[in-house]
Write a structure and sequence with these properties.
heterodimer, A: 117 residues, mainly beta, seven-stranded mixed beta sheet, four-stranded antiparallel beta sheet, B: 111 residues, globular
Chain lengths: 117, 111
């Protein structure tokens, strides 16, 4: 089955540590995204990548870093510079630039919940 | 003004009721409109999408887009307890380069 796999599902981190969240997709989608979700708030874009070896900052990129070395993979590193990293992180993918026969929609993974102790 | 506004609820209805969920937006460049359902501690799943204005129906779900009013709706008929979730509206332009989400409406359908 095609889809997006995020790991780990739950992660605990001590203050001052960097952690990396994995995101792999087998949908052959060009674009990949990382969102952060906090209780009572909408999804906020951290980083996105339209193509391999290229990525752009979203609305809340400070304290995060990404890489896009392969089309299928878009890992997110939460660095110690991120002041409030406890949140639910969602990876998504899409194929932008579709015509009317295709839909510009996002497909999401199951999410990774990060807790800082 | 936020780019997308959505009543956060929570909204509680009895089983069998018709539910109306709504979003308003300000960017006239949006062309694709989506509704996602998110169960607790899960990733959002796509329910329906609509291109430009009009209605789309899928089983008990109907999505409506009124671009002149910048207003979109999701109707759920014969609501079931399994419909209890948070519903997120989302929208983007023709090229899918910028997806903007509403904060979500939490719905509870009581048996």
């Amino acid at each position: 089955d095609g889809g997006i796999t995020q790991s780990p599902k739950y992660l605990f981190r001590k203050e001052g540590q960097n952690v990396t969240l994995s995101c792999e997709q087998n949908l052959n989608h060009d674009a990949m995204y990382w969102y952060r979700q906090d209780p009572g708030q909408g999804l906020r874009l951290i980083y996105y990548s339209q193509i391999v070896n290229d990525f752009q900052k979203g609305d809340i990129a400070e304290g995060y870093s990404v890489s896009r070395e392969k089309k299928e993979s878009f890992p997110l590193t939460v660095t110690s510079a991120q002041k409030n990293p406890t949140a639910f992180y969602l990876c998504a993918s899409s194929t932008p630039g579709r015509d009317l026969s295709g839909a510009n929609v996002l497909t999401f993974g199951a999410g990774s919940r990060l807790t800082v102790l | 003004q936020k780019e997308v506004e959505q009543d956060p609820g929570p909204l509680s209805v009895p089983e069998g009721a018709i539910v109306s969920l709504n979003c308003t937006y300000s960017n006239s460049a949006f062309q694709y409109f989506m509704w996602y359902r998110q169960y607790s501690r899960k990733g959002p799943e796509l329910l329906m999408y609509t291109y430009s204005s009009g209605n789309k129906e899928d089983g008990r779900f109907t999505a409506q887009v009124d671009k002149s009013s910048k207003y979109i709706s999701l109707f759920i008929r014969d609501s079931q307890p399994s419909d209890s979730a948070t519903y997120l509206c989302a929208m983007t332009n023709n090229y899918g380069q910028n997806f903007v989400f509403g904060p979500g409406t939490r719905l509870s359908v009581l048996p």
